[in-house]
Design a protein that fits this description.
This protein is α+β, with helices and mostly antiparallel strands. The chain has five helices and 13 strands. The chain has a six-stranded mixed beta sheet with strand order 3-6-8-9-10-11, sandwiched between helices. A hairpin with a 4-residue loop joins strand 12 and strand 13. It is globular and about 50 Å long. The N and C termini lie close together (11 Å).
Amino acid sequence: MGSAVKIPYLTVEEYLAFEQESPFRHEYVDGQVYAMTAYAMSGASKNHARITNNIATHLNLFLADKQCEPYQVDIKVKAGNSRYYYPDVVVTCEAADERAEDPYLVLNPILLVEVPSPSTQRTDKVEKFNAYQNIAGLLEYVIVFQNQIRVEVYRHQKAGEVWQGEVFTESDQTLIFQSVGLTLSLAAIYQRVIFASKSEGEEGL
């Protein structure tokens, strides 16, 4: 998540109208608007782009003949009554029921993927995860680190169940996106990713 924008408190309706007219993307948390400055100003890192492209490409190919559809970076998700976020990758099966008045919003995601920078890891692991758990149909939340080989997968089968976590840290491991049935190796997720040495510092988002 970016920095807070100096805008008075907005209702959900005001935020959605504002967002359609804005040249930059903003997330919305309990009336406060946050500019996605990492994207709008400085841009995403190459590693961030590589990881999101890798995951989205495999999902798109796998789901090509299915109802479920992946989106990457630019589609926002409603997480509870007063929070709207832009996940890095989202999969939804709502296409057949999509309302014409919501062409910019996913209401019923089944899979969400975030690729945090070191500075946004806590937001993605705590704030966003807590908010995403309010989405009744969400089955799987995946956090893919860009400065090391580490993928955290959180799943549950239905609303009300406790979320279970699993961590992958080796390139020869494979994980199953159970929400869609796709098996993917960490090597495929991290294809072309270049990790900076400690002396060079970590590559930001």
